[in-house]
Design brief:
Chains: A mainly alpha (202), B mainly alpha (319), C mainly alpha (197)
CATH architecture of chain B: Orthogonal Bundle
Low-confidence stretches of chain B: 1-9, 14-22
Number of helices of chain C: 8
Distance between the termini of chain B: 24 Å
Radius of gyration of chain B: 19 Å
Number of strands of chain B: 0
Radius of gyration of chain C: 17 Å
Structural class of chain C: mainly alpha
Mean pLDDT of chain B: 86
Structural class of chain B: mainly alpha
Number of domains of chain C: 1
Number of helices of chain B: 14
Order of helices and strands of chain B: HHHHHHHHHHHHHH
Helix content of chain C: 55-70%
Shape of chain C: globular
Largest sheet of chain C: 2 strands, antiparallel
Oligomer: heterotrimer
Low-confidence stretches of chain C: none
Strand content of chain B: under 5%
Helix content of chain B: 55-70%
CATH class of chain B: Mainly Alpha
Number of domains of chain B: 1
Largest interface: A-C, 40 and 42 residues
Order of helices and strands of chain C: HHHHHHHEEH
Strand order of the largest sheet of chain C: 1-2
């Protein structure tokens, strides 16, 4: 367990291999919910919560269920079920706390279940912190931290995008590209700029 | 949160570039173009006539693209306001001297069409159009974009840039700081002659068309960072080399300072400069690419709306 | 019957999952690099959509609301497994080409999205046509996007070089290029829509 490893995980997950702009996971909600900053941050918080908690739960399932019983091929389906259950829980909470927010998110809240970012980080944790079916030292802490950092990376991308789109609200954008087309083009240029992080080596 | 302002009421609350200087946009654009001419002329001298073609094609393509798109969308034709010419010029300055003729044409088309017009035209783009074009070209035709030629050798012998050599771990021979300052190295057309660039930059600073905040913080951050994290251990970095090489001077004075795509307030600009500097240095030292200026500036362009949001003063015009 | 045809067509144009509903982007970006992959993925996803929409509509009154999402996932995963096994048996080359994205149809927003927004609230026959329409809409979108990306990004179509001496734009083989193409296509469709109005 080393500070350097945690620092590496943080910088990689948030900047260098940003889940949205470099790995291209979680794009549906990125393009759909990033129009205004407040909802974007709310969605980011929800996603971050789900990525962190599901990192914890999936780690335990992999380590104490799938490996001992030699059924690691059930990884995909078991992880998805865990995430689905968790998102259902989050949905109930949000519905209770803030019905307008719940209505605003609409379909995109249950869709966190299939948000590639969430599933992706669960799989990434296993790929990175288990070698030959055995957990490396501090594997659990690294996994949870990575889950958190991927959520932070998602938040960063959402924050940048919503700032841009809010500013464009004041502008005289051509009617044909208003909203979604421009959002895609912005995402394209943003991801082109993140290409600068390719091939990173500490 | 969206304030619901719509342009049908002729209340155009745009955030740039109106707040910096009260002279017309056209004059500013043309002044920047003029200040960039020395660097281009020296570039052509160093790399040969092909470089001149690249520059001309870049400019012409930019102007035609803008005119055509404005015609198509029935908007006012503003091709003579100097901004398209500036974009075409800057894009060409960011290209290697011996690229095929269609490269600057396509690059300028992308810069104007996607980097600028799609956002609604001048003053509304988020990203520096020339740099958007450059990274697009880099991702599309990497081989052409990374083939450089020897300076002062009109037979177009290929040679690597100093930063590329460093990235491969090779030792630089026969390259003095003076060579770097004058531009006797492989590189992009408009980036190599630091002397010519500084002359242009000093002109712009003297006339007040750009302020020192962004360029100086940008360059200082790169210098400091590369000094601290030198290759031979801490506090041993060759900061002067890093300042004089690559596209840093061109980027810091002429692209990072673009009014439209950089923050409004002084505080925001300093944050912007530091951010660009950190990203550039990090990519140069540890990234896969030898140069990071274009990527760094574009990333900070993306952050500018957020920076503005959190550093805005209540009363516009006061600092 | 006319009503069903309308449901079907809705998924293709008015509520196209890729261009209007903005769903299923991750696999779209990843898979649409070549035309054959796009077609293959479209067909596989259509099958899953059809199956899951029908079953979920059938059980919609039985599933408790509080655990509906995990239940839908189980149904979807079952159909994905069937699809994967069928593909492995009858076209292993395509299965290899699509790789991890076949099992990842489970996380394709379109499938869960339609289950949640439509199949869980509508009759079986309606859901059938919705699933079919959405699947075909998705496939057509994939064909359009991957056709452009393969042609301009690799100079080929269906694996065959189309124009000699054409310098392909590598950026289109990357997700950044895909995002650009989708954005431009969306803008183009909007122009057509505005012109009709």
């Amino acid at each position: 367990m080393s500070i350097a490893q945690f620092l590496t995980i943080f910088i990689s997950a948030v900047f260098i291999y940003n889940v949205i702009l470099s790995r291209f996971l979680g794009l549906c909600s990125f393009v759909a919910i990033s129009k205004e900053t407040r909802p974007a941050l709310a969605m980011s918080l929800a996603v971050m919560f789900v990525t962190t908690m599901s990192s914890i739960i999936t780690w335990f399932i992999y380590r104490f269920l799938l490996i001992p019983f030699n059924i690691t091929y059930l990884r995909t389906i078991s992880f998805i079920l865990v995430i689905a259950t968790f998102v259902q829980f989050v949905e109930m909470v949000i519905k209770k706390i803030s019905p307008p927010l719940y209505r605003f998110f609409g379909i995109y809240l249950p869709l966190i279940t299939v948000n590639c970012a969430v599933f992706g980080v669960a799989v990434l944790n296993i790929d990175m912190f288990f070698i030959n079916g055995e957990a490396i030292r501090a594997s659990f802490y690294y996994s949870v931290f990575q889950g958190l950092c991927v959520g932070l990376g998602y938040t960063l991308a959402m924050l940048l995008m919503s700032g841009i789109r809010e500013r464009l609200d004041f502008c005289n954008v051509p009617k044909a590209v208003k909203d979604f087309p421009l959002a895609f083009i912005i995402a394209s240029i943003m991801s082109l700029s993140f290409l600068g992080f390719n091939g990173f080596r500490f | 949160m969206s304030l619901g302002m719509n342009n049908q009421n002729n209340l155009i609350v745009s955030v740039s570039p109106h707040l910096h200087k009260d002279e017309s946009i056209t004059k500013i654009m043309w002044m920047v173009v003029i200040s960039l001419l020395p660097a281009g002329l020296v570039g052509v001298f160093i790399f040969g006539m092909n470089a001149l073609w690249v520059v001309l094609l870049g400019i012409i393509s930019a102007v035609i693209t803008e005119g055509f798109l404005q015609l198509l969308t029935k908007r006012k034709i503003t091709i003579l306001d100097g901004s398209a010419i500036l974009t075409g010029l800057l894009l060409a300055y960011n290209l290697p001297p011996n690229v095929p003729f269609w490269l600057p044409i396509i690059g300028s088309f992308f810069s104007i069409a996607i980097g600028k017009q799609v956002f609604g035209g001048l003053g509304q783009n988020i990203f520096n159009p020339a740099l958007a074009g450059r990274v697009f070209l880099m991702a599309s035709w990497p081989r052409y974009m990374t083939t450089f030629t020897k300076p002062l050798n009109y037979d177009a012998v290929t040679s690597a840039t100093p930063l590329a050599l460093i990235k491969e771990g090779r030792v630089l021979e026969n390259l003095s700081y003076w060579d770097l300052f004058l531009g006797k190295r492989g590189g992009c057309i408009g980036e190599v002659c630091i002397l010519a660039l500084i002359v242009g930059a000093l002109f712009l600073l003297y006339k007040g068309y750009i302020s020192w905040h962004i360029p100086i913080t940008y360059i200082a951050t790169v210098g400091l960072f590369t000094y601290i994290f030198g290759t031979k251990g801490l506090l041993s970095g060759d900061w002067l080399f890093h300042i004089l090489t690559g596209g840093l001077i061109l980027g810091a004075f002429f692209m990072a300072t673009d009014y439209v795509t950089s923050p409004l307030t002084r505080k925001g600009q300093i944050i912007f400069g530091i951010g660009c500097g950190l990203l550039t240095a990090i990519i140069r030292l540890w990234g896969g690419y030898p140069e990071g200026v274009s990527y760094a500036i574009l990333m900070m362009n993306a952050a500018t709306p957020i920076i503005d949001r959190y550093t805005k003063n209540r009363i516009y015009g006061t600092q | 019957m006319k009503k069903f045809v309308k449901e079907f067509l809705r998924g293709i144009i008015r509520e196209n999952p890729t261009f209007v509903l903005v769903l299923g982007l991750c696999p779209t970006l990843a898979v649409s690099v070549s035309l054959i992959n796009g077609i293959g993925m479209g067909i596989a996803a259509t099958f899953v959509l059809l199956g899951s929409n029908i079953i979920i509509s059938l059980i919609r009154n039985v599933v408790p609301d509080r655990i509906r999402i995990p239940c839908y996932i189980v149904v979807i995963a079952t159909f994905v497994t069937i699809t994967e096994m069928t593909m492995k048996a009858y076209s292993p080359a395509l299965n290899r080409a699509l790789g991890i994205y076949v099992p990842l149809i489970v996380v394709n927003c379109i499938v869960l999205g339609r289950a949640e927004a439509y199949a869980s609230k509508q009759t079986v026959v309606n859901s059938l046509f919705d699933g079919l329409g959405m699947g075909v809409g998705f496939t057509l979108a994939l064909i359009l996007i991957s056709g452009i990306r393969e042609f301009l990004g690799a100079g080929k179509l269906l694996g065959h070089t189309v124009i000699k001496g054409f310098e392909p734009m590598f950026v289109l083989g990357m997700p950044s290029g895909a995002l650009l193409i989708i954005g431009l296509l969306l803008g183009f469709f909007n122009v057509l829509k505005n012109r009709k109005a």
